[in-house]
Amino acid sequence: MCIESAQSILDGALPELDLPRFQQAAVRSARSGRPLEDVHHAVCQGFLLGIASTDRPPDSDAAFERLRHSTRAIIDTLGTISATLSRSYLSELQGIVAEQQSSAVTLVSALLAGRGPSAVARETGFDITATYTALALMVPVSDDPEARRHNSPGQCAALIENTLAEIYGDTALSQFSDNGGTILLSDTAAYAGTLDDLIVRLSDALGVPVLAAAVEGSGPEIPAVAEQAHELLDMVLRLGFRRGLHRFDDLALEFQLTRHGPARQSLGALLDPLDEHPELLRTLECHIATEFNRRRTARALHVHTNTVDYRLQRIAKLTGLDPAEPAGFCRLRSAVLTRSYLRSESGNPAAPPREPAPSAPG
Question: Which fold has domain 129-257?
Fold first, then answer.
């Protein structure tokens, strides 16, 4: 593109710049880690090659050679200046970003460790609000090898950070590992309506369906609230959910059932009649994970919907609880959940049910 532009200029015509192609080239360079100064250098080299490859009739050789020599000198000089500016600018920008990220990391680490919001605010300079929403986030590994290659853990964290910045500016605090982490959002009343949109946008940015759990609390409660959010996330994973936002208020009953007490043993025992019928237990787990959807359950198990209906009827007969009725389904779901915790504590964890990965974020 640069060669053609240079040739057009020397032919006496303004080049028709395809700016979207330049933008796409810049994006590819950024994603591949190519330094900005190299990009500028490639542009200059393209113009120089365009000048060198342009022919002129013999009667204009002398004048054109002088023009070509002068133009090459100008472009060389501009390339040197551009590279110098790029190095200095980017070095300073990286320093500023690193300093800001260090302050943000210090802040979120202090809050999650239980430091008082007032003391943290004085030490870091950040305005600590009275109320927060803690989001426990899980980013599943994509089944697409190409997507896994482009979305390394570091790139995933950068994409999440960029999405948070686009929506919340610098008010969102976050801490990430390889496959998820914790996000702290201040002023929950203002942000409550956008949390579902946030999960959708994160899923779009990452190319995989993101799963999250949200719990609200005040500044001094942040460590407990964040821990509760991750416990809630673990619970929805055991229920087989693989996408979307799940709030504490919607699952408070199930959450309470996972706490220690006699209710857990009683609920877990409801599934004992299914121990000799693993295909029925698997069907029930899948039916819970698909949120009581016969077609999706059949697709996940690779069976006909009539087979699903037959198995659900057998579950009702063996347990005395009908999955087709709201009350029966609620107790069976609670039993599956509590049994998962009981098995984990006994050293015999059961793998959570899993649906086939979707082709696009849900």
Answer: Alpha-Beta Plaits (3.30.70)
